[in-house]
Design brief:
Blueprint: H1 2-34, H2 46-59, H3 66-89, H4 92-134, H5 138-161, H6 165-187, H7 202-223, H8 241-259
Helix pairs in contact: 1-4, 1-5, 1-8, 2-3, 4-5, 4-7, 4-8, 6-7
């Protein structure tokens, strides 16, 4: 029964790995295209939104509300100008203090995006290593497949739920445990003859670095003052230059590893 199940699980692991590689390449292309000028990268301002509301009201014949809307628009615009003037005229230390919350929120979003990419990349490595380890035993091979599925599921949940603190703690503890386990298998092995000391390879080093990145980014998000406020979906968060670079680099590493063959 075990001999029949292992090849099927190995095929599933291969399919998961190549899906992540191809999917990552598609996401990179979409992000690069969306970043081009004239491709909808400019956000609609509040003033433009109010002007559009005015046009809609006029077209619908609701002219009675136009005056009130104009007043609200003018008031909001004047308020925004006054606020900008106060910020611009404030001393340097006050301007830095006022800009700090936005910078902290941007740091949290970047950390979460890097954690999401790193978790998916580590899942791809574990999926690629699964078929090889299924030859050593169903238990070891299943560990790699389950790890890949768990890391991929965590990445998707992070995309949908943002800075859910329990999710961040799960990512930090889970990936830290895998890093510790990898360190043991490369230094002293596992007890009861489960795993002998194994050589350090390119694939497992890459996966470990991605897992360390997940741990570090989760720690950054958990210690941020915005960890309980930035709870929206990550697919609505603007990708920073650092997050884009990390994504492109991770996909390129995955492609190179795939072209060099299966992990030993």
């Amino acid at each position: 029964m075990t001999a029949q199940v292992a090849p099927i699980l190995g095929v599933l692991a291969h399919a998961l790995h190549y899906t992540l590689v191809v999917g990552g390449a598609i996401v990179v292309v979409l992000l690069l295209v969306s970043a081009r000028p004239g491709r909808g990268s400019r956000a609609v301002t509040a003033h433009e939104h109010r002007v559009e509301e005015l046009r809609t009201a006029a077209a619908a014949g609701q002219l009675a509300t136009v005056g009130a809307t104009v007043g609200a628009t003018v008031g909001a615009t004047v308020g925004a100008v006054r606020t900008s003037a106060r910020v611009a005229g404030a001393p340097p230390h006050q301007r830095r203090a006022q800009a700090a919350p936005a910078a902290a929120e941007g740091t949290t979003s970047t950390a979460l995006l890097i954690a999401m990419v790193s978790s998916a990349a580590a899942a791809g490595v574990h999926a690629a290593a699964g078929p090889v380890h299924f030859r050593e035993g169903l238990l070891i091979g299943s560990f790699f497949l389950v790890s890949a599925l768990a890391q991929l599921a965590w990445s998707m949940l992070l995309l949908l739920r943002g800075t859910d603190r329990m999710l961040l703690w799960a990512g930090l503890i889970g990936n830290a445990a895998i890093v510790v386990l990898w360190t043991l298998t490369r230094t002293v092995g596992l007890p009861w003859g489960l795993v002998e000391v194994e050589a350090v390879g390119t694939w497992d080093v890459a996966a470990t670095l991605w897992e360390v990145a997940v741990v570090a980014c989760c720690a950054v998000a958990l210690t941020s003052a915005f960890a309980h406020e930035t709870s929206g979906r990550l697919d609505r968060v603007r990708w920073s230059a650092l997050a884009r670079t990390w994504l492109v680099g991770s996909v390129l590493v995955m492609v190179v590893l795939t072209l060099t063959g299966a992990p030993a």
